[in-house]
């Protein structure tokens, strides 16, 4: 089979790009996620997780397109919408961080202020200079304590939010299980009532037989559908693994 020269040139370009990508990704792949996260700020960690999720989605799209699969109604479209929403949030956070860096600082350099006062008022006594130095040290300690308390309060607030979210999820699960139990009790009661009521005529017996046949057909169709899904998952393990990895990455971004 003769391959056109243009196609060969494009394949060589793709191979060179993949080799370059592997070279740049090697340091990232050799390090553990915890080591990388420890060296990054929270905003940088979010950007890294977003870039990783986008890379996974892009590679999965390429994989499906090479298999000549239609992606218009594929579940990957929902993941693309989620990534677009996260990207907008990250861009907003980056813009806010850049704006905060450009604003002039409002904090006072206490040590510099004390030196300025010493130079402006040279006739201070030893007791006054000592009192001034003591006051400066106390103000520095108070400022440091305030900075340490800010992250602690933020962390406590985040813990309370997570606790409230977990409580809400537990309440929803409890409500769901209670509703399922009520539905099951209702079905059991209905079945018992049907068994207790005698057949009034041959026509009612025919209706009951038709209803039972419909239920059996529904169960058979559901069983066939589950079997087809199992066969599809068995035929395409790479797709299932990619979807699972993508869900894990997006869960890290949510966290």
UniProtKB/TrEMBL annotation:
Compositionally biased tracts (Basic residues): 219-233
UniProt GO BP: maturation of 5.8S rRNA; regulation of gene expression
Location(s) in or outside the cell: Cytoplasm; Nucleus, Nucleolus; Nucleus
InterPro entries membership: Exosome-assoc_fac/DNA_repair
Domain of life: Eukaryota
Region (Disordered): 132-243
Keywords for the protein's UniProt record, in alphabetical order: Cytoplasm, DNA-binding, Nucleus, RNA-binding, rRNA processing
Comp. bias intervals (Basic and acidic residues): 205-218
Bias (Low complexity): 138-155, 166-178, 234-243
Keyword Glycoprotein annotated: no
Annotated signal peptide: none
GO molecular function, one term: DNA binding
Similarity remark: Belongs to the C1D family.
Task performed by this protein: Plays a role in the recruitment of the exosome to pre-rRNA to mediate the 3'-5' end processing of the 5.8S rRNA.
Protein's recorded name: Nuclear nucleic acid-binding protein C1D
Source organism: Tetradesmus obliquus (Green alga)
Organism phylogeny: Eukaryota, Viridiplantae, Chlorophyta, core chlorophytes, Chlorophyceae
């Amino acid at each position: 089979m003769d391959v056109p020269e243009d196609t060969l040139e494009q394949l060589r370009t793709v191979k060179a790009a993949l080799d370059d990508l592997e070279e740049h990704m090697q340091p990232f792949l050799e390090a553990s996620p915890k080591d990388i996260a420890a060296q990054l700020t929270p905003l940088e960690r979010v950007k890294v997780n977003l870039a990783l999720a986008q890379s996974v989605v892009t590679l999965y799209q390429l994989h499906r397109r090479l298999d000549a699969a239609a992606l218009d109604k594929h579940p990957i479209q929902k993941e693309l919408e989620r990534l677009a929403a996260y990207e907008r949030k990250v861009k907003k956070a980056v813009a806010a961080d850049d704006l905060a860096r450009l604003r002039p600082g409002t904090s006072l350099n206490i040590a510099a202020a004390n030196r300025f006062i010493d130079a402006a008022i040279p006739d201070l006594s030893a007791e006054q200079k000592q009192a001034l130095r003591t006051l400066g040290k106390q103000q520095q300690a108070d400022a440091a304590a305030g900075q340490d308390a800010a992250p602690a309060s933020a962390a406590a607030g985040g813990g309370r939010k997570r606790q409230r979210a977990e409580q809400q999820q537990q309440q929803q699960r409890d409500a769901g299980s209670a509703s399922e139990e009520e539905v099951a009790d209702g079905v059991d009661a209905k079945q018992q009532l049907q068994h207790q009521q005698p057949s009034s005529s041959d026509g009612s017996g025919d209706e009951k037989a038709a209803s039972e046949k419909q239920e059996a057909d529904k169960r058979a169709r559901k069983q066939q559908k589950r079997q087809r899904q199992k066969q599809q998952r068995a035929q395409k393990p790479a797709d299932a693994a990619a979807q699972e990895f993508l869900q894990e990455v997006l869960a890290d971004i949510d966290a």
